[in-house]
Amino acid sequence: MDIYEQIYQRLYASGEPAWTGSGYPRAWHNLHENLTTLKDAALLPAPGSRILELGCGNGSMASLWFAREGYQVSGVDISPTAIRWAQENFFRQGLCGDFQTADVCHLNQLPEHPFALIFDGSCMHCLTGKQREQAWHEIKRLLAVDGHFVLSSMCGEPRKEEDRRHYNPAEYVLYRDGQPWRTLLPLPLLRQEILEQGFIIQHQQVTNNPWWDHVTLCVVAR
After folding, report:
1. Residues 38-95: tens digit of each pLDDT
2. Which of these, 149, 194, 191, lies nearest to 54 by C-alpha position?
3. 129-132, Cβ contacts within 8 angstroms, sequence gap of 24 or more
4. Which of 3, 12, 18 is nearest to 181 (CA)?
5. Is residue 175 within 8 Å of 181, Cβ to Cβ?
6. Using CA atoms, how far apart are residues 155 and 143, in angstroms rounded to an integer?
7. I need a surface site. Which of 115, 162, 171, 181 has the fewest CB within 10 A?
8. Average pLDDT, rounded, for the chain
9. Comparing C-alpha atoms, which of 10, 27, 220, 3 is closest to residue 116?
10. Phi, psi for 200 (deg, rounded to 5)
11. Is the per-residue pLDDT at 1 higher than 70?
12. Rounded CA separation 73/95 (Å)
């Protein structure tokens, strides 16, 4: 069973609000502030536009914010439990959303260029090695002309000693149980990756944490 499916089954069974567990209020507060900043800076498409959240989880983060703002929301996640949970959450709140179980590296079931905005629901930093290039390919294929991509990612080296013991600075990869778990690129290298993929960075917001930093980057294709 996929590790993310295991985690979501446990979270769902224990009645947690989302992936972040007890940290959900803080995560929601930071997300709301970041998206409101983008909205006020006119960096989001108009309500009613189609948006896609990569790694939508149970729909309680970006998908929920955009749905409440009047957008047409779609979300994909590799965990079937997360997707069923997202559908339940939206139904309970009277919201509309199209949620599908899918691998963000392979989204062939979705047509080309339908989304005015694609939001990374803290998913890209879960991809390592060739997975990142595959995901970038899909993002560019699915993003509408003049559409925006919002990257929400861990960045920089881990600060806690336990994490540092499992971090390979040569690869910029954090390991878990001996397997690649997270990509933790320094911010300059993350910006370089974005530029090399053919995007222009329009906005950057860094949140400093005791464990590692988290950056929100709003980009548009050249």
Report:
1. 999 999 999 999 999 999 999 999 999 999 999 999 999 999 999 999 999 999 999 9
2. 149
3. 129/180, 131/105, 132/183, 132/193
4. 3
5. yes
6. 24
7. 162
8. 97
9. 220
10. -110, 135
11. no
12. 9
Q: Are 26 and 102 in contact (CB under 8 A)?
A: no
Nearest Cα neighbor of 197 from 163, 172, 222, 171 is 222
CATH topology of domain 3-8+48-213: Rossmann fold (3.40.50)
Once rounded to an integer, what is the mean pLDDT over residues 177-187?
Answer: 96
Phi-psi label, residue 178: left if phi above 0, alpha if psi -120 to 50, beta otherwise: left
**Bridge partners, residue 97, by sequence:** 73
Per cent of the chain over pLDDT 70 is: 100
Amino acid identity for residue 54 in this structure: L
Q: DSSP for the chain?
A: --HHHHHHHHHHHTT-SSTTGGGHHHHHHHHHHHHHHHHHTT-SPPTT-EEEEET-TTS-SHHHHHHHTT-EEEEEES-HHHHHHHHHHHHHHT--EEEEE-BTTB-TTSPSS-EEEEEE-S-GGG--THHHHHHHHHHHHHEEEEEEEEEEEEES---SHHHHTTEETTTTEEEETTEEEEE---HHHHHHHHHHTTEEEEEEEEE--SS-EEEEEEEEE-
Residue type, position 156, single letter: G
